[in-house]
Write a structure and sequence with these properties.
mainly beta, eleven-stranded parallel β-sheet
């Protein structure tokens, strides 16, 4: 919640501009499509987008402190072969943006990483959104001063099939928070890949379900600080990779590497077994406490890991749990 309070204070400051306005988007409104509002929006404005399907409408958002919200249902932004700057359905260049209750569908570009959102500004909040059938769900650049907060959001069937595109791909930002979200069925790539310096990932479901062929459920390739808690992670029978969660596989940072996993349920349903968690050697701090490991798989060789966690072959009652969104 501290992250939300910090964002709220910043947003309140930005939204105090005397000329801040509410821009209405819809077939009967002044702005017929989100791109029309993007061209007109100023710092601190709110944009309310009527539910409906907006085909081939893509936009670059440049103003700061924007709130972009779907109303009267969830509007669907269907790329239909179009992209902003050859990158995404929405390219967000402004700072301190909130995106609420919007679906991003079908982004595809020539280089294979067309995103629902390409985040290029500083600080982003995403709530109650859907990213489906894009080459990348949400893709961020690198800015150590930036934070991204995601909650109550679904990422499904994103990826171009090359193994380098993912449901959610975060560059080297300062902090990532993902809560109460459902990340599933990434196409060959990972459900979550994050290079953020600090990561808080709680109360989510990561899953291949029955047919998914994702790689890692979650990957933190450069280490950093990770709190991974109260998630359900399911590796399906058709997955491309036999590791559920990977930490530091591309090389650890020089310092500040800590992986803490508490209260998670790891379910491996792949016939070949695999690894529940990979932790790179020389990680400064590793804690695995109160987790349930279901099925065949290995875990890091840590003191008292058998006593501090549960190992079983029986599916627990929360095996099919997913957050309410």
């Amino acid at each position: 919640m501290a992250d939300l309070f910090r964002f709220a204070l910043v947003f309140a400051s930005l939204c105090s501009f005397a000329n801040a306005a509410v821009l209405h988007v819809g077939p009967k409104e002044r702005y017929h499509a989100p791109s029309d509002a993007a061209a007109a929006a100023g710092d601190g404005d709110s944009v309310e987008i009527e539910a409906g399907t907006y085909r081939g409408d893509v936009a670059v958002w440049r103003a700061n402190g924007l709130t972009l919200r779907g109303v009267n249902g969830r509007p669907v932004l269907d790329a239909s072969g179009q992209s902003a700057e050859g990158k995404a359905i929405w390219v967000i260049k402004g700072d301190f943006t909130t995106v609420d209750n919007i679906a991003f569908v079908g982004a595809k570009v020539r280089d294979g990483n067309g995103a629902g959102i390409r985040q290029e500004g500083r600080d982003l909040v995403v709530r109650r959104c859907l990213f489906r059938d894009n080459q990348e769900g949400l893709l961020s650049g690198a800015n150590p001063q930036s934070s991204i907060y995601i909650e109550d959001t679904e990422f499904a069937h994103n990826g171009s099939g090359n193994g380098y595109s993912h449901n959610l791909y975060i560059g080297e930002i300062g902090k990532l928070v993902v809560k109460r979200s459902y990340l599933h069925d990434a196409v060959v790539g990972h459900n979550l890949k994050s290079r953020a310096l600090e990561n808080v990932v709680m109360d989510n479901r990561f899953a291949d379900e029955k047919e998914g062929n994702s790689s890692y459920a979650a990957e933190f390739p450069n280490g950093g600080q990770v709190l991974f808690a109260f998630n359900v992670i399911q590796k399906g029978p058709k997955a491309e990779n036999l590791t559920l969660v990977s930490y530091g596989a591309e090389g650890l940072r020089a310092s500040g590497n800590a992986f803490v996993a508490k209260g998670n349920t790891f379910i491996n349903q792949h016939a070949m077994g695999g690894r529940f968690i990979f932790i790179a050697p020389k990680t400064q701090k590793t804690e695995l406490i109160g987790n349930i490991f279901v099925g065949n798989g290995t875990v890091p060789d840590l003191p008292e890991i058998q006593q501090r966690n549960e190992f079983t072959m029986k599916l627990p009652g929360n095996a099919d749990w997913r957050p309410k969104m």
